[in-house]
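Standup notes
- DV: blocked on the single-chain target, sequence here:
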Amino acid sequence: MDTPATCLVIDARKLESLTVDGPALKVTMRSQSARLFPFRRLSRVHVVGAIRDGIDTLLQCAERQTDTECHFYDWI
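- DV (later): unblocked, structure below
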């Protein structure tokens, strides 16, 4: 049984760190434990707000998984 692809929304104001951890995107938000999001399950990554660190990580995400879209919104 295949797991459907999911959309990830990141609030840049609360982002502590964003890195690549093997075959996954590792997202750490302030005052929370790190979470891993496997590339194969990501269809889109939306970043709300101005991202300071991690833009290189999102570019790696897009390179590894050609079906993953990255969108940036400066609504904050």
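- Follow-up: Residues 20 and 50 are 20 Å apart (CA to CA).
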